[in-house]
Write the structure tokens for this entry.
Amino acid sequence: MNRYEFEILTFIDRSDINEYSMRMLSDSIRISETKIKECLGTLIDDELINKDDTLLEITEKGYEALEPYRVKKAIIIAAGFGSRMMPATADRPKPLVTVNGVRILDTLLDALVSNGIQDITVVRGYKKNRFDDLLAKYPFLKFVDNEEYDRTNNISSVIAILDKIDACYLCEADLYIANPAIISKYQYTSNILGSWSLETDDWSFQLDSDGHIINYQKGNRNCWNYYGISFWTKSDSEKLKEDFRQVYENVDGGKDYFWEFVPLVLKREKYGVEIRQCNKSDIIEIDSFYELTQLDPSYRIS
């Protein structure tokens, strides 16, 4: 299945309608009408789609063709302390802090589960036993402990779960997900979430002429803000295992890196990571206790 056919099938799958015009498909998927018509013809001939005038429906054979692209597992990096969120993190890790009664991590877990993903491993460190509280709602969760979390950067968390990296989502745990649709049931290529910015002083990247991520750095112009939710194909997962280990064990200062520096900077030539576009309103980054109080007034000290 080529990329265009994949995009058409997955768009139909996640849409809550079944009647489509060529213009609507072209505008929504950002593919020319000519290519849409060509790919629809192939999908119909291959019996992956049934078409009746403007009505389109994925067949059982179509879903079978999509199955190799279904995401079945996720790894969540949740070992850090969250010092800037004190005092909210005095008795719990940042991902378990509640915002208006909802734990930050629940917003990501609910988005994953709604897409049928229950093979979920959480890498924990600070106040690790508090994560057991999640099991009442998510009994299928698996935990891996990172005993190095307070002596290294978060690359030690991926080292702790190297054997589990395999065609999966790799996510940071401290993002409040306002739009669960940012988690997709199917993925075609390795990608990282990003939102467009004219200028930012935060972590961001740009794209080369092939649409692959370059210039990952703090502070940028005409760029994409980085969000720590990514997907890695099976082939890239195998490269990540090798490269994470090599950097962590053999590169001077390797234990001080953020994990994403490996595929986006240090070993970038080995990967072609795309951006998966989102809106800034889709994810709420809560970086400090002050920002928490703005979202949830119950934390304000009178």
Q: What stands out?
A: The first strand starts at residue 49 and ends at 52. The longest helix spans residues 234-250. The chain has a mean pLDDT of 95.
